[in-house]
Amino acid sequence: MKNPAIQWYPGHIAKAERQLKENLSRVDVVLEVRDARIPLATNHPQLDGWLGEKSRVLVLNRRDAIPDNVRHGWDAWFRDRDVVPLFTDAKQGKGVGELSRAAEAAGRKLNERRKKRGMQPRPVRAVVIGFPNVGKSALINRLLRKKVVESARKAGVTRQLRWVRISDKLELLDAPGIIPWQLPDQTAAVKLAICDDIGQASYSNFNVAAQFVDLLAQVVETDRTFNLTNPLIDRYDLAATDLTGESYVEALGHKRYNGDIERAARQLLNDFRTGKLGTMPLELPPIP
Known about the structure:
Elements lengths: L10 H13 L5 E7 L11 H5 L3 E7 L6 H12 L6 E3 L7 H21 L7 E7 L5 H9 L17 E4 L4 E5 L11 H9 L10 H18 L9 H5 L8 H12 L4 H13 L15
Parallel strand pairs: 1-2, 1-4, 2-3, 4-6
Antiparallel strand pairs: 5-6
């Protein structure tokens, strides 16, 4: 049976997208935040067109959710494409100092140009952009070393744009998560749903959990570099071998939850999102 399409575009994000475009002319540097578990799926396809030649810093948040060797693999992959990614863990604060320095460095040329024109230097203005729930607000709070913007482990918490002064050298524009008008790549859309980087109203827990099981098997099967293992058997004492994703979720529901398939689906997704399945990527660096 074909899985229903995942689509989500609530009104507040449409409004925020319009406001973001209106404010981009005031921004010097763009901090593009992606989910380290799915760095390709969390690449907004329209961002290049919006930003043009603006300075950009690529931030891969949730570095703690993937193995170190996978992180090194992504670092090499991006560097081969002339992009130097910064890996952060907003929850623990790892990489946040490096992020602040990178943002300030990206804006120094601006103040050098201002000085040549006889103008006074000013703080660098940066905007934090990314899909919902990739950790943008949590990163800002870490940069400030206090909770100033609302942050939670769910999509759609930030509802409007606001400027936050980090220091006398850096000001940040906190923007709501942005999602394309359409999600034609349903493989990417499923990954967004699995990682909770899209609103829950857009998908069925059972369908997404079943595709999660299938995706885990695919990632492990195609891995030739990182020695990944499927974490399901260790967590649930139930191997996924020879079972489809749908069959696995159903079997888990009968084994552990008295036949409650919906509960099994929610537990699978929650265990992955909270790290109870260990460090597990859903995307690996493409092999040339």
